[in-house]
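ERR on first pass: missing label on line 2. Operator R.T. fixed the label and resubmitted. Corrected input:
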Amino acid sequence: MRTQEVPVSSEPPAETQSDIDAEIEALRKAAAARGLSHPDRDYPPYRSSILRHPRAAPVEITDPEAAELSGPVFGAGDVTALDADLTRRHRGEPLGERITVSGRVLDRAGRPIRGQLVEIWQANASGRYAHQRDQHPAPLDPNFTGVGRCLTDDHGRYQFTTIKPGPYPWRNHLNAWRPAHIHFSLFGAAFTQRLITQMYFPGDPLFGYDPILQSVTDEAARARLVAGYEHGRSVPEYSMAYTWDIVLDGPRATLFERPEAEEERR
Amino acid sequence: MTMLPATPSQTIGPFYGYALPFARGGDMASDAHPEAVTVHGYVLDGEGAPIPDALLEFWQPAPDGSLTGAPGSLRTDPTTGVLLGRDHTGFTGFGRVPTDADGHYALRTLTPPAVGKSAPYLSVCLFARGLLHHLYTRVYFPEHEAAQAADPLLAALPPRRRATLVARGQGPRSYRFDVRIQGGDGDGADAETVFLAFPLG
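pass 2 clean. output:
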């Protein structure tokens, strides 16, 4: 059982994968021409979204002095070097495929997001989260919690060492399985650039069945959630390398003309 | 100038609880600060049911009006790696608090100064399982009625919609602010919190 509102003793969900597939396909066709990056918040194939999306359109803020155009900052004291290695947080080594995940955090103008906080969390190699409410009958790993954080460097780069998470079942519909993924939380220069998302692994056979990934209805946008495997970065006899660059919304056109933007272009 | 396409948002899911919250995340100001105020309330879904797996983040100017923020919200112990949380020697401007099993959250902070033409407000970013893309809203305070009449956001909203952005006073130095993600039918539609969009890219 994956969601609080579904008691353990409840009947299995009535809808089958093919019911969900048909809904996903209809919404994909309806959205095809729009080419949006972000999912619609109203995406019924992901059942939990039905009561958790606003009906009214958001009110646009054009105030150039809005507080949201600046944002939180973090520093060297907020993280330790070990926070970026999820395989060394316990006495022993976790089970699973040891991997690195690295990339750059950029804004839409291609400028690096420097010195900002990147946070990740994930299931273990068996597809189980170290969370009390995760009751999937897969083993917990005493040597893996699945939490990491780091600050981006001067080029916007981040890197984590971890293990590849497993896929897991959930209760959206009968026989629903999430593709393996790592949750990412990112900050930009402005609060408006905040992003929480999920990184997937290339070639996962579950992509087409998953309403959360498919909520991104544009195919090219979905592809931007999938990491690349980069053999040249793999460490011989130690870890396999995945790379994933992240592009945050913004900046606004006016912010783009700030002096540091000039500097970056030189 | 070609702009890069953005990385899509995905839901925070139900299992962020051991990863994102940190000690004193909701205490932007110390309990002991003589001017600390409490802002608390419930996050509610389209049926008015509390949401036990939401995460709220807050951003605001420091008492001197600056919007530069300061590091030190998380503070990690370099010996053990344990998250210590802020020590209240400075004001970081950033707060993060998950809802509890009742869908309730509480924040302790300092009433922000006004910035620009706006009345004072806290900026809020809301995440939840079931929410595919985060939502922005604001908390305004009931004492600033005159400034709110001239606030560019509030002044443009019909009264019932505007009311969703103004916290209610609840005893000394305490405010109630609920976030209703989805309004009901008919008159209930106005119960939906006003959410904000920012022109980007």
